[in-house]
Amino acid sequence: MVVPGARFTATESPCRTKTTSFGFVPSDNAEPMPEDSEGTRAAGPVTAATDRLKATAASFDDSALGEPSLCPGWTRAHVLAHVARNADALTRLLTWARTGHEHHMYPSAQARAADIEAGARQPAAELVQDVHESAERFAKAIMEMPDHGWEQVVRPGLAGQGEPIPSRRVLWLRLRELEIHHADLRADYGPADWPDAFVRRALDETIRSFSRRDDVPAFAVSVDGRPAEPLAQDARVTVSGSAPALLAWLCGRSTGADLTVDPAGHLPILPSWL
Questions:
Q1: Which tens digits make up the pLDDT trace of 27-45?
Q2: Please, which of 126, 232, 234, 266 could form a disulfide with 122 given CB 3.0 to 4.6 Å?
Q3: Where are the alpha helices (DSSP H) in the chain?
């Protein structure tokens, strides 16, 4: 099952409509936040999101894992395999920050895709264990990080092609992967279940990122009844709704059926999220 109107194509992953050189971690969509500076204390939301996703993963048998996810061309097994390999990829970035020796997330797009395909072919019990063990490796890397290591600069993406970021931002990148892809599993977890703090940050980043792009149509958003925030100076259309509903629409996980448009009409046609 694919969400009607979602901006996906079957050849792109993970569920993105625009492939970048560094996948799901663009620098302008990982804005620094006060909680980033807290080091290991900022890992709490990641731990909670991991536990939620692991519980969902454990509920799938082989048949359920073979069912389509919200990512065209990907089964639930592909999504979980991607989440596991992302944990290992981000663990490599934290190892880079801790040791000073360069470790890339992925050597190439081909190697990344091959690892996901191999992971998706695992039996349910092995895939769930893979998700658990990769998450444990990431948690261990967090605990091993010295305080000064959180300010060390790393480069995410394929072969380190992404923009440099302080390693503390890796925690946010992981949280975003967990929350978005949990919803992609097409299970009993969706945008309405996203934690408020995650929604606020992800929505704020998305609005700021969209407002800097020239491929986004001119419109404004009104979040939870607050004054509209234009994404372009000549915005003449306002899209209103709850924060989770707006984020789900902006990131391509919803058709926007629960949003309102003023003046009445169709929702703007959006480009890719990242």
A1: 333 444 444 545 555 689 9
A2: 126
A3: 44-58, 62-65, 76-99, 109-120, 124-144, 169-184, 196-211, 243-250
